[in-house]
Description:
Blueprint: H1 8-20, H2 22-30, E1 41-46, E2 51-56, E3 59-60, H3 62-66, H4 71-74, E4 78-83, E5 92-95, H5 96-112, E6 120-124, H6 129-141, E7 144-147, H7 154-163, E8 168-172, E9 175-177, E10 180-182, H8 184-192, E11 200-204, E12 218-220, H9 221-226, E13 237-238, E14 242-248, E15 256-261, H10 262-276, E16 284-287, H11 294-306, E17 310-314, H12 325-333, E18 337-340, H13 342-349, H14 354-357, E19 366-370, H15 376-386, E20 393-396, E21 430-433, E22 445-451, E23 461-462, H16 466-474, E24 481-489, E25 495-500, E26 504-507, E27 510-513, H17 514-522, E28 527-537, E29 541-550, H18 557-571, E30 580-583, H19 597-604, H20 621-629
Parallel strand pairs: 4-17, 6-7, 6-8, 7-14, 8-11, 11-12, 16-17, 16-18, 18-19, 19-20, 29-30
Antiparallel strand pairs: 1-2, 3-13, 4-5, 9-10, 14-15, 15-23, 21-22, 22-24, 24-25, 26-27, 28-29
Helix pairs in contact: 1-2, 5-6, 7-8, 10-11, 13-15
The structure holds 5'-O-[(S)-ethoxy(hydroxy)phosphoryl]adenosine.
Residues 248, 293-295, 370-373, 395-400, 421, 483-485, 497, 500, 506, 511 line the site of 5'-O-[(S)-ethoxy(hydroxy)phosphoryl]adenosine (WTA).
Amino acid sequence: MLTNIKDFQSYLDTYQESIDNPEKFWGAVAEAFTWNKKWDSVLEWDFTKPEVKWFQGGKLNITVNCLDRHLPERANQTAIIWEPNDPNEAVVKLTYQELFDKVCQFANVLKNNGITKGDRVCIYMPMVPELCIALLACARIGAVHSVVFAGFSSSSLADRINDASCKLVLTSDGGFRGGKTLALKAIVDEALLDCPSVEKSIVLKRTGEAVTMQPNRDLWWHDEVAKADTHCEAEIMDAEDMLFILYTSGSTGKPKGMVHTCGGYMIYTTYTFKNAFQYKEGEIYWCTADIGWITGHSYIVYGPLAAGATSMMFEGVPSYPDMGRFWQVVEKHAVNIFYTAPTAIRALEKADISYVEKYDLSSLRVLGTVGEPINEEAWHWYDDHIGKGKCPIIDTWWQTETGGFMISPIAGITPTKPTYATLPMPGIQPAVMNENGQELAGNGVEGRLCIKFPWPSMARTIYGNHERFRNTYFSAFENKYFTGDGCKKDEDGYYRITGRVDDVIIVSGHNLGTAEIENVIDEHKEVCETAVVGFPHDVKGHAVYAYVTCYHTPDNEEDLRQEIITLVAKTIGPIAKPEKIQFVSGLPKTRSGKIMRRILRKIAEKDTSNLGDTSTLLDPGVVETIIEGAL
Ligand code: WTA
């Protein structure tokens, strides 16, 4: 059964059932889907290895659940609404029948180009309908997609392609984003100089800009589609077969390819989509995320489509052609459910209120946020000006690793509290831990957030590196999944996520690993050593602060700063650019040579009143000098 939460008491009852007997609970949810063969066992798990298997022995294809099974009832219902970057360009609407045909056709394109079950396909595309089609086409034939956000640089793209040994790259000539165009094919060309596993790339025409097509490697999307049939049987997959890889930043330099599998991911994303938003038949649902991130995978593509919803994709940005774009789009499509990030809300809140007031937002029923903690002011602005005090706000806390919502209100049912993600979804068992590894039971506690029982959509491993998976998530606290986040559980048992407690910084909702940025800056020939931390920023949430030591005093600090910024943008992507770069003569280190980031974080936050114990530092004097020169 997919939904039975009708009021707060039924949420509490459902939650209790899901904890008392998880296998019975998820087994019943799974019955609502189409399987080629039912599972032999609902769950087998061991967090020490770690190994988690849901619905073992079950056979299915997620696209049958997202497409085929809806056709008898909703062939003519809109599945995807696509709103282009330019408000004057035509909207595209694909019915479930049309989406089904296009997915099957593109699945045949993949097959015609030698892709078979288990092959990895990298997708580096703008937010166009073909992106959604590409994901589903891979899933149709059991190929593993690895979407790389189209804002990453060529070297980040190459790293990800090589890590997964992708055989094929799907891209476009370019992409529109606000007033800019991105030369995606040129970036792919540069990346592919260094990617021996890639045999072909298929290029969609979007901007019409000139590109170089390499013979024997590059093919035009439209040529390939013209040759392909629209009939394609779905590959029958094991519940635990790989569905996709999606990279996320980690505490050490290299991004982690999180692996999600077919059965549990499908069930959990669909279940949480239906229940948390309380999605009703026929509603227009808009998640503003990019499909390059987990939010787009789970809550633009898979969850909504498996639930038979109408899901909108937006190609543009909130500020183009002006700061009223989101609200203009809400009015234009009479959007009922709107899901965005706190960083967008903070940016729009700063614009003149007339940008909001110009539009009719009365279609809205539910609002959502994701990606980082929402501050009180932004929460109230969203509630008052967008929801007009009538729309429940669901603050959904989750991660690339968790696949779906973990802690979130049930819209209109869970009483909300500004800045609180509130209560766990059914099946989720959070634990608040202290630094010594003890669980802080009861309410009114604060600590590190862990999860102590498996849920169906959890990542199963890091592609090619299970040991790193174990180390990162299952070694800090015995027999628990460690999220990397800190949290507060108040007197009512409500959870509030306070932010990362590891070396990940969330800038405008994008995860960045400090080590990854440090490694890039260190590559500059004048740079000796770098330490990167996050600091609070009123629109981005957090921004990057880099402390840099050089071999020689820089001749011109400003020039060097610009060179470093360009280097970071070129190597990782513009999202990782440091907001502040402070040149320092030395970094605070312990006697064993470890950089004391805690101190650097405090200085960046301009909170130097209590730096804690600095006596263990090799040279306590450097701290004073850094404080004096702080930006
Ligand atoms: C943060 C995005 C507070 C958190 C789905 C988490 C949040 C990281 C929230 C994962 C929220 C996400 N409130 N913090 N509602 N949602 N986060 O992998 O620090 O891109 O660990 O997944 O974002 O980011 P990721």
